[in-house]
C-alpha cells in the first residue's frame, strides 16, 4: 500500500486563469452558459493549460467537456447548475453505462483521452435530477430505461461495434454527473456534488487518480452511487463524505461480454479516512467485476446510518466472471447498518449458476468495530464455486440481532472476534 500511495500524485497546472465571465457567462441561474464554458476551456487549452475559473454565482449550463491541462475551479459560493433538458447533452459521446460501452448522452462533466485534468474548489456541482427529471427514467411506467438496457445488453453480447450502439435522443439511459474516460493524472478535490441522474463520479480506464475532500450529497436518487472507479489503476479516495442513494464507493471493472472484450481491471485503489452515511454499501466491489479487481485498501473510515445497508460489500454473479482478490480493510468503524456489516455475495440478482463463475477471495478485515445491525456476516458463494478465503481479526460486533449466513465458503477464519460480547 505505501508503494501505491507514493505513485499517486495529483497533476499541476500553469498559473493562468480563464474566468468564464470573460466569455459571456452570466451567473443568474437562468442564463444558459454552455458556450461560455466551452470557450473558456478552449482558450485555456490553447494557451497550454491553466485554470478555468467559476466565480460566485449560479451558472446554468449543458455539458462541460474538459481538455488537456485544464483545471475547472469553483470558487466559494459558486454553483454549476446543470440543465434539465436532455438535448443539452447531445451530440452523443463514447461512454459507459453500467459497465457496457456505447454512444449516449454526454456525462455532465466529461473528458475523454485527456492528460492532466482537474475539478477543484469549494463550490457545488448540481445535477438537478429529481422525480420528474432523469430519475423517472429508472423504472416503469414508460418512458423508462428498461427496454434500452435490454437492447444494449443484447448488442454487447452480439458483438455490435460500440460506434453502432447509438442511444441518446429517443432513448432513456441516464448519463453520469462526472465521467472522465481514459484520462491520466486526474484530480477532483473540495467540491460538493449532488443529485446526479445516475452515478455521481465515474472515472473509467483512468490512471493516477486523486479524489480528495469532496462531498457527495445525493441520498434520494436511484443508482446515485458516490464514486465508482471502473477499470482504473492507482486511485486514491481520501477524506471524502458520502450520502448516497446507492453504494458510496463502488469499484468496478466492466460487465459480462463487454467486460471480457475490454478486459481491463481495477487495481491499486486506496480509500482513506472517508465518512459514509446513507447508501447500499460503504466500500463496495462490483457488481461489474468482469475485468477483475485487485489490491483494494480501505482504512480509517466511519460508516453509520439507518439507511446504510452494508459497510463492506462484494457483489457479483456467474454471469460476471472475473476475479476479486487481495482486499484489505483496517480500522473501520460502523455505528449502525440496516443489513449485514460484511457481505460477500456471489449470487447477485439471485443468479447462482452460469457460464462465468467469479473467482473471489483473499479478503482481510482487521480492527473493525460495529455497533448495531441485523447480522455481522452474509457470505454466500456459488455451489461448486466457493468464496476462497475471508479472514477477520481483532474485531467487535456489538449488537447483532440475527445469526450469520455463511454458505459455500472455503477458508473463513476468525481471530480474536467478538459478536454480542462472546468470542467466536
TrEMBL record:
Question: Among its keywords, does the record have Hydrolase?
Answer: yes
Put simply, this protein is called Exopolygalacturonase PelB
Keyword Hydrolase among record annotations: yes
**Which family does the UniProt entry place this protein in?**
Belongs to the glycosyl hydrolase 28 family.
What are the record keywords, sorted?
Glycosidase, Hydrolase
Source organism superkingdom: Bacteria
Q: Which organism is it from?
A: Nonomuraea monospora
Amino acid at each position: 500500500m505505501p508503494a501505491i500511495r507514493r505513485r499517486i500524485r495529483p497533476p499541476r497546472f500553469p498559473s493562468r486563469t480563464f474566468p468564464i465571465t470573460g466569455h459571456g457567462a452570466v451567473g443568474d441561474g437562468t442564463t444558459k452558459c454552455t458556450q461560455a464554458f466551452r470557450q473558456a476551456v478552449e482558450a485555456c487549452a490553447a494557451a497550454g493549460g491553466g485554470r478555468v475559473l467559476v466565480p460566485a454565482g449560479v451558472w446554468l449550463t449543458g455539458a462541460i467537456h474538459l481538455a488537456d491541462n485544464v483545471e475547472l475551479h469553483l470558487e466559494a459560493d459558486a454553483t454549476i447548475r446543470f440543465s434539465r433538458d436532455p438535448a443539452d447533452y447531445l451530440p452523443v459521446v463514447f461512454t459507459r453505462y453500467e459497465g457496457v460501452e456505447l454512444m449516449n448522452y454526454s456525462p455532465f462533466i466529461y473528458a475523454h483521452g485527456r492528460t492532466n485534468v482537474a475539478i477543484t474548489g469549494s463550490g457545488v456541482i448540481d445535477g438537478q435530477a429529481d422525480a420528474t427529471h432523469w430519475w423517472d427514467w429508472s423504472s416503469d411506467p414508460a418512458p423508462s430505461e428498461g427496454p434500452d438496457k435490454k437492447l444494449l445488453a443484447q448488442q454487447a453480447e452480439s458483438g455490435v461495434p460500440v460506434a453502432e450502439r447509438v442511444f441518446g435522443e429517443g432513448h432513456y439511459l441516464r448519463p453520469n454527473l462526472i465521467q472522465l474516460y481514459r484520462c491520466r493524472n486526474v484530480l477532483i478535490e473540495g467540491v460538493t456534488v449532488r443529485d446526479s441522474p445516475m452515478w455521481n463520479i465515474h472515472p473509467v480506464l483512468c490512471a493516477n487518480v486523486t479524489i480528495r475532500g469532496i462531498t457527495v450529497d445525493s441520498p434520494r436518487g436511484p443508482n446515485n452511487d458516490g464514486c465508482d472507479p471502473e477499470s482504473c489503476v492507482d486511485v486514491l479516495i481520501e477524506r471524502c463524505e458520502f450520502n448516497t442513494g446507492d453504494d458510496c464507493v463502488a469499484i468496478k471493472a466492466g460487465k459480462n461480454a463487454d467486460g471480457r472484450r475490454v478486459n481491463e481491471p481495477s487495481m491499486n485503489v486506496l480509500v482513506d479516512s472517508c465518512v459514509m452515511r446513507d447508501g447500499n454499501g460503504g466500500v463496495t466491489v462490483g457488481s461489474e467485476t468482469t475485468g477483475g479487481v485487485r489490491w483494494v485498501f480501505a482504512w480509517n473510515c466511519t460508516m453509520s446510518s439507518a439507511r446504510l445497508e452494508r459497510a463492506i460489500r462484494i457483489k457479483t454473479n456467474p454471469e460476471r466472471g472475473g476475479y476479486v482478490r487481495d482486499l484489505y480493510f483496517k480500522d473501520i468503524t460502523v455505528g449502525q447498518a440496516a443489513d449485514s456489516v460484511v457481505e460477500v455475495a456471489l449470487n447477485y440478482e439471485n443468479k447462482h449458476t452460469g457460464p462465468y463463475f467469479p473467482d473471489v477471495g483473499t479478503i482481510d478485515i482487521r480492527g473493525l468495530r460495529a455497533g448495531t445491525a441485523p447480522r455481522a456476516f452474509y457470505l454466500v458463494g456459488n455451489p461448486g464455486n466457493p468464496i476462497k478465503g475471508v479472514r477477520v481479526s481483532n474485531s467487535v460486533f456489538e449488537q447483532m440481532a440475527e445469526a450469520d449466513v455463511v454458505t459455500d465458503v472455503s477458508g473463513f477464519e476468525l481471530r480474536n472476534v467478538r459478536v454480542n460480547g462472546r468470542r467466536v
